[in-house]
Design brief:
The complex is a heterodimer of chains A (about 375) and B (about 350). By secondary structure, chain A is mostly helical. Chain A is built from 15 helices and no strands. The relative contact order of chain B is 0.13. Classes of the chains: A mainly alpha (about 375), B alpha/beta (about 350).
Chain lengths: ~375, ~350
């Protein structure tokens, strides 16, 4: 089975079950909303990849001049353009690409051995997922935890420290934080590896099925590989996650403070409800509503941050792939990668909207 | 609805059940201060008050006079930067001020209930009505099963005039009057002895308000309730209260049975308040307006806090604070007009 398909199944099946559960449990209007939302995702992705397709063609330079240089003969140039289909009218190229996307083929890359894009993405997408998922967990986990803690300890030293932390971490450029962490933890302390996803030697022992090395090492029971994967994962994930956590610390803090002053919190206390339940079940749950909205918006920033993080940590994911292929003017690879990103963002925002509807019974569709 | 069928074992603090008219809750010399940058503000200033079993006591006063703070203090729900600085809160033979937070929590909701001003915001928007009720019941009676709590919740909701199947709805699906009934149901879930209702009808229109006040009276009789009704609406008090306490600038100004107060107001503040109530029969008369505004509690006027606005002011009023004394029968007031002071005659002559 193709690794891309396996990755899709690994994430798609649980997500599908969750969506199905919400769908069956939800009201008639919620169901209609979910269907509309899914239907709207398609034009959204279509518009995005169309924009990318045309912007790429407007960009100066092409694959021949970027790979062969300015001295390539006009004849070679013509031959390559013809072989890649770049001499066809733009509209033909456009519909060919749309056809590629619809058939999930995505065509072949323009450079190197002209491997199918799906194979290249099959290696790169899992690497990126293995970066952004732990990063998202770190961002949300630390953001919610610190934010709630700061709210409960409002105007105490720990609150001021956490607020300062959130501003500093949020305003720090990702690549700079990455270099800093690498200098401290990899060079000076020598606790973590400098870069990459796994030790070169350990890599040879690992049997790959999904290209999600974390999953692969567990599936094959290769604990040495799992250790290596986690050690490699921690710094890049922390870099990306911590930078994003700043927003969540502040947002959670202010919302928990606000909800703790709500009448229903006071009323719950007046009914003798335990303070722990008041804080977590009343205040935090209500405070999560705006936070969930921002999670959806932050996914795009997460992907943008992944591009930078992958570059700093030499992480062989979609971000680095995208940068490589943009400089090589490998249109096929770039537009396919962007299509995958677009689909990803669209799916997450769909998930956020569905979560929102489950979380807040007041939301009407 | 007998006690055995709907309610489990009650938490008691050791006193036998009270008969109607006996003192259920007694505030003794209670002060509440809020620390502000400009200094401490005495929102409640040495207030003593007895609440009798089975009565509806109206607590009236202008905005900022400390009536809501007093209500919260009765549940020991003053949050920082406020705190109870002096006094005792005697309930069921125990001074609540001395209780641990844990014991206090057991009493809140179970023996003492509170209904807040704005029914639109007093219920957790993410929880169904049934969850509010079962959570409250099961917090105080851990042995009750979820199903039993649910049954009880449905019965209560039914008793308060809502359809029982609506307990699975969310707060936003109810109107303001319905939500205020739900708040009452929450106070009754454990059959509280005393319900403090802080401006419960302010957010309701007059028709719903009248229905709600009728309901309060019915419930008082049926559930053996005692109600403290905090309001700035004299009309509401006249309609349902048995006794009325008037507060001014954090202090008690007057306390009397409702008839006594309306027919023979002692304190000039109370007199002013009554004259300021629009009367549908006094057509064409200019509505009385009390001079001045309630004092800033950071700089409470010396002596009687009302003296700068008082039409019957005497020299002594700005020098000494009158005591809150029994005037005749059940009528208490804090005003120099009705009490003697060693220096008063001389001052009076001057």
């Amino acid at each position: 089975m193709h690794p891309l398909l396996i990755v899709f199944l690994v994430f798609g099946i649980p997500a599908g079950f969750a969506l199905g559960w919400v769908f069956l449990r939800g009201s008639e209007s919620l169901r209609r909303y979910i269907l509309t939302r899914i239907a709207l995702t398609l034009p959204m992705v279509l518009i995005l990849i169309s924009v990318v397709f045309f912007v790429l063609r407007v960009m100066p330079g092409d694959v021949v001049s970027s790979t062969l240089g300015p001295k390539a003969s006009e004849e070679t140039r013509q031959n390559i353009m013809e072989a890649l289909g770049l001499d066809d009218p733009l509209i033909v190229q456009y519909f060919r690409f749309l056809g590629d996307v619809v058939t999930l083929d995505l065509g072949d890359s323009f450079i190197g051995a002209r491997r199918p894009i799906v194979d290249e993405l099959g290696e790169r997408l899992p690497a990126t997922l293995e970066l952004i998922i732990p990063a998202a967990i770190i961002a949300l986990g630390s953001g919610l935890l610190f934010g709630t803690y700061a709210a409960i300890r409002r105007k105490k030293p720990v609150d001021y420290s956490l607020r300062l932390y959130s501003v500093i971490i949020y305003s720090m450029p990702i690549f700079w934080l990455g270099l800093l962490l690498r200098l401290v933890f990899s060079v000076w302390l020598d606790w973590t590896p400098i870069a990459g996803r796994i030790d070169v030697v350990t890599n040879t022992t690992l049997e790959r099925t999904t290209n999600l090395l974390f999953v692969d090492s567990i599936l094959s029971g290769n604990w040495a590989a799992l250790k290596s994967v986690l050690r490699h994962m921690i710094l890049p994930a922390a870099t990306l996650g911590l930078v994003l956590s700043g927003v969540f610390v502040r947002l959670t803090r202010i919302n928990v403070i606000e909800t703790l002053q709500e009448d229903y919190v006071l009323a719950a206390r007046a009914r003798g409800i335990r303070e722990r339940i008041v804080t977590y079940s009343y205040a935090l749950k209500n405070a999560m509503i705006p936070v969930v909205t921002v999670i959806g918006l932050q996914v795009a920033i997460l992907l943008a941050g992944a591009v930078l993080t992958e570059t700093v940590f030499n992480w062989p994911g979609m971000g680095r792939y995208l940068i490589e292929r943009i400089s090589a003017r490998d249109f096929q690879a770039v537009q396919s990668t962007v299509a995958v990103f677009a689909l990803f963002v669209a799916l997450i925002s769909l998930a956020v909207d569905v979560i929102y509807s489950v979380l807040d019974p007041r939301v009407k569709y | 609805m007998t006690e055995g069928s709907l309610y489990g074992e009650r938490i008691t603090l050791g006193e036998p059940p009270l008969k109607a008219g006996e003192i259920l809750y007694s505030l003794r010399d209670v002060s509440v201060e809020y620390g502000t940058r400009a200094g401490p503000v005495a929102a409640v200033d040495h207030v003593s008050l007895d609440i009798r079993k089975g009565e509806i006591l109206g607590l009236v006063g202008e905005s900022g006079c400390g009536k809501s703070t007093l209500g919260k203090a009765m549940l020991r729900m003053i949050s920082r930067p406020g705190r109870i600085t002096t006094g005792e809160l005697w309930f069921d033979g125990v001074d609540l001020v001395t209780l641990s937070e844990r014991r206090m929590r057991e009493i809140r909701g179970a023996r003492l209930g509170m209904v807040f001003q704005d029914p639109m915001t007093s219920l957790n928007p993410l929880s169904r009505i049934v969850d509010h009720l079962t959570e409250t019941i099961m917090t105080h009676e851990p042995s009750v099963s979820e199903a039993a709590a649910r049954d009880r919740a449905a019965q209560l909701i039914g008793r308060l005039g809502l359809r029982e199947e609506r307990i699975d709805d969310y707060p936003h699906q109810f109107s303001g009057g319905m939500r205020q009934r739900i708040m009452i149901a929450l106070a009754l879930a454990l059959q509280a002895d005393l319900v403090i209702a802080d401006e419960p009808t302010t957010a309701l229109d007059v028709i719903v308000e009248a229905q709600f006040l009728d309901l309060l009276r019915e419930l008082r009789d049926e559930f053996d309730l005692t109600i403290v009704l905090i309001t700035h609406n004299i009309g509401v008090v006249a309609e349902v209260a048995d006794r009325v306490a008037v507060m001014y600038a954090g202090r008690m100004a007057e306390l009397a049975s409702v008839n006594e107060l309306f027919l023979d107001t002692k304190h000039p503040y109370g007199q002013g308040l009554l004259r300021a109530v629009p009367n549908i029969e006094l057509d064409g008369t200019e509505l009385y307006q009390m001079a001045g505004a309630p004092p800033n509690l950071l700089h409470t006027p010396s002596g009687c806090a009302f003296h700068p606005r008082c039409p019957a002011v005497m020299p002594i009023c700005s020098q000494h604070q009158p005591e809150f004394l029994q005037r005749e029968g059940d009528h208490y007031t804090a005003c120099w007009l009705y009490q003697d002071h060693p220096v008063k005659p001389g001052v009076h002559d001057a």
